[in-house]
Structures are given as C-alpha cells and as structure tokens.
Amino acid sequence: IVMVAQAALFVCSSYATRFAAFRYASQHQRCYIVFYSVALILNFIAAIILQGFLSYRQMVGVGARTFDGQLLNQLGSFQELFESFPMQKSVGNTLFRYCFPTTFLIPFVFEGLFNVVIAKHLGWLLVATKPKITGEAAIQALEPIEMDQGRYADIIFNTALLTFIPFITPGYMYATFVRFLLSHLWIFWYDSYKVLRCVMRFSFSTPGCHRVGLKLFGMPISILAGALVFKANQWSSGTGLFGHGHLQGPSLFLTMISVMALNLALYNIALAIVLKRFSSRHDRTESTATYAEAVKNHPAVATYFSVNPIHCLRSKLSLCKKLPGVP
Length: 327
Fold this sequence. Notes:
Blueprint: H1 2-20, H2 25-61, H3 78-83, H4 85-99, H5 106-129, H6 136-142, H7 151-164, H8 171-197, H9 208-216, H10 218-235, H11 250-278, H12 291-297, H13 304-307, H14 309-316
C-alpha cells in the first residue's frame, strides 16, 4: 500500500508539473521536486496518524496497560497516551516498517527493474518481432530513458523519515539508521550505473534544482530540532515518567512548531549567505569584450564555440576563416 501510494504521488506530481507548462526544463524539475517532497511528507503524516489510531483502538480492545498498570483509555491527555510505552512501541514499529524496506530500498530496486531491465528487454522484443518498426521508430523504441533530478525529493524524504525516529522509543534508532545507510549505498551504486550506462540525456543547465534541494533539506533538520525539544521536555520532569514534562499539551506543540520554524528560517539565512559568498557567477551584462578577446585571454576555457561538434567541424574544414571570433 505504501509503495502504491508513493507511486501515485509520483504520477500526480509529474502531471501537476506538466500542467504548469513551464518554459524551461530546470523550472519543471524544481517544481516537481517541491511538489513530490511535500506530498510524500503529508502522505506519511496521514498514514502514521491513521495507523496510530487503529493501533490504539486495537490495544484498548485487548486491555493494554502502561508500565504502572493503567489502561490506555484511562490516560488523561493525548501527550500521556503518545508517550506511553505501548503507543511508542506501536508507532515505532509502524514507522520502522514504513521506512524499511518499503521506502528506503524496494522502490529503487523496482525502479531499476522496470525502467532499465524490463523496458530495455521489451524494446528489443518489439523491434525484433515487428518488421514494420524501422528507422526512427526503432530508435525511439530502443532509446534509453532521460535522467531527471527527482532523486533530490527521494533523498530528502528518506532523511525526513530518519529524523522522525527521535519522537519514539530510541530502540529503533540504530536499526533504522543502519538500514538507511545500506539502502543509500544501493541508491548511489544504482544511480552511478544508470548515469553511465542507461541514460540518454540530462538537463543540468542551471544549479536551480541543487539549490532547491539544499533549501528543502532544511525540513528534516527542522523536524530534528522539534524532536530535540520533545525529548528535552520528557527529561525535564525529573521523575522518569513520560507525559509529565514542564510543557504540556498546546504549550509543548507551540514550542516545537516555533523552534522548527526558527530553525528553518536560520538555516535558509545561513544557506543564502554561504551560496552568495562562494558563488562563482559573475555579472557580465556590462562587458564589452568580444569572443576573440576572451579566447585569447583564456585559451583553456571551454566555450560553446570550442566544444560544440558542429563548430569544431566547421573549424576543421576551414569554413569560417572570414568570420571573426570563431575558432
């Protein structure tokens, strides 16, 4: 169910981005990353709330109790209920199963299986068994896929799932973190192979998607800041009893939201300063230098004229001797 929901969100985000009809591919990719990241996180929150409610009803039905013997339906507040051991264990187990293997690993295994292996094999069979498919149609049938930059959304979502672990019992932290690392080693190997062997073209004309990914990475960092507030409040009671911290109910929720918002704002301010400080972009709108002067001063720099195959062929055949500034 989780994988089907994620696949549906992928399709919906893709169609919504296409419907926006952006002019440039980089704008399309940036919009898709934002749509898909937000949709995945909202879907996860809804799934956890639903599963938590169903687990609560089930445990109440069997008469589950806290460590001091209280029935779950006798607890006085939502905070006490959420911090009780039966709920922490149930939500933690749900979150762990949501993370691995259904989110961290299986989608990326299936992606390689369907997008690379099966698609390529079906293309071969189609061309081999249909004599009418020739020329450009055959090339399109055997054409590799195009590489997009949607992996930013996948990695950000997986990292966000990891930062939700501190809200529950810490026993799941080690197991989830190890599986997170191993799964992302597979993703790194798969993407490396895909880029080198199974991709037709790229669209990396601007660093816009990378910067959007950096900004969105503030979400898991902010979630972690909220989790630290949650855990610090648990320890503040001094009694060792969960649900008895200094902050209770709405005050705890507002404090966590405020800290998360402040953390996100500080992160984006720091990111903007760093990007501006180390940016290699220069304003050349007032430049009057010609191409010939630029090539003479910087002969080793690759330009559109010096690396474009058509211009290189024209230069080799001496077809542009009369055109100044063309090598």
